[in-house]
Model the fold of this input.
Amino acid sequence: MFFEADPERRAAARAEWLADLRRLVARGDYRQADREFERVLGLPEYTLYGAPKNGRPPEQFTDGSLISKVSGSFGGRDDVYPPQPSSLRHLTWSERVLRLSPDDVLLDIGSGTGTAIDFFGMFTEAKKVYGMEIEPDYAAFADRRAADLGLNHVHSLHKDILEEPLPDDVTAVYLFNPLGSTGDNDAVGTVADKLVDMGASRPLKVVVMGPDMASRLEASGAFTLESEKDFSYLIQGRPASSSWKFFTSGRAAGA
Ligand SMILES: C[S@@+](CC[C@H](N)C(=O)[O-])C[C@H]1O[C@@H](n2cnc3c(N)ncnc32)[C@H](O)[C@@H]1O
Done:
């Protein structure tokens, strides 16, 4: 019913499902919400929450065909962060603040196996949703899955965001901690500069988790912090938290 041909019935079914997922999130059943979303869309389960970045095997999902070939010890890229999929906690908050309209085009920088692009493709009116992902297996999987689901406006491109310009049609950007700067490679600064260049010349909405990236956008003068939310959780039984921030440039806030 979430994928049926009739647009009105499909939209109603998706709206109802999103409300159900929000209810699970509101009562703290985060993993249940995540698992339900993954199960219905046929997305792989990530198995390494909280594992140290350099102690992970190349097979990072229950689906053994999804092999990390680029990050850390596998491909020597310490600036490439692991592929942890977004949680419904963060996605439902992001959907609320971004308020994507049929004029919007969303880019997920570091789109992994497609959880976020599929979520925004399913539950928002954005006319196009696409991801750029450096790990070839993840990018190919996400693109195939979206096509198999009939999400024809959702695409995953195998690209290194450090080497690519931001596409001209983008109006909104989602960043869930894709990269980190290393001693000789300011990966975060490279991507922050691209966002600031675009945001300085036209309206852009950006949701970001990653304190380094957020502070660079804040310091740039091109973006306004519209809202933020701290999420707390446990990593191997120890309390931790992450801060998500929503920025706009120009007059993008109410767009
Ligand atoms: C934390 S995951 C987020 C996955 C997805 N955005 C989501 O929310 O479900 C970060 C992803 O960024 C990718 N990544 C890291 N550096 C990248 C780069 N330079 N270009 C493109 N993707 C990159 C990683 O391979 C990883 O899959």
User: Anything to note?
Assistant: The pocket of S-adenosylmethionine is lined by residues 71, 80-81, 83-86, 108, 110-112, 115-116, 132-135, 138, 160-162, 176-179 (CB under 6 Å). Residues 7-26 form the longest helix (20 residues). The radius of gyration is 17 Å. The helical segments are 7-26, 30-41, 72-75, 88-98, 115-123, 136-148, 187-201, 211-220.
